[in-house]
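REQUEST FORM: STRUCTURE PREDICTION
Request ID: SP-0412
Submitted by: Lab K.M.
Chain count: 1
Length (residues): 177
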Amino acid sequence: MFFRLILVLLAIFLLLAGVLLPFSTKAQMASFAAAYLSSAIVILASFKNYANMVKSRLASGMYDIGSQDAIDKIDDPFNLYDEENGILTQINENKSIKDIIKEEKKLLKQNRRGFLNSFKDTARAFNPIRLLAYGVFVLIFLLLLKSGNLDKLYYIPTLFLPNLIAIFYFVNYQKRL
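STATUS: Completed
RESULT:
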């Protein structure tokens, strides 16, 4: 999936560069190429990091796929309603509402995420590949700025192109599934 996205991004880059080359100056082409490629690197690194984070969470059992759909989670977050019989399961066991609420509070406290789990998630967000991609992005910008080849009219709009391409790619990929 990512390899295909890389090919799509490169193909569109080559197509746009070929169209712009006869009509652009050296500074404009440098700004276009730098913005497009650095933005594409950041997008690819971010998507890869996110995919790895989701896979690790699924592997650790943090999310249980298929146990309860999204509407059930909203309607019955504590799984009190039995769909087969159409009754409240907790009340059917002759428990008082206070006891049910106390049990649910205990369950919420047990399922609460601690500082260590939050820190692990934060550490995953600062993946070295992603940080390297942002470093390349900043470095290329500074090189363009220092060399005097930064053309803002080409640079800023071009930053959005890989984002839009990736969004359309994943929307179309979802439709194929």
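NOTES: Strands lie at 81-82, 87-88.
Reviewed by: T.R.
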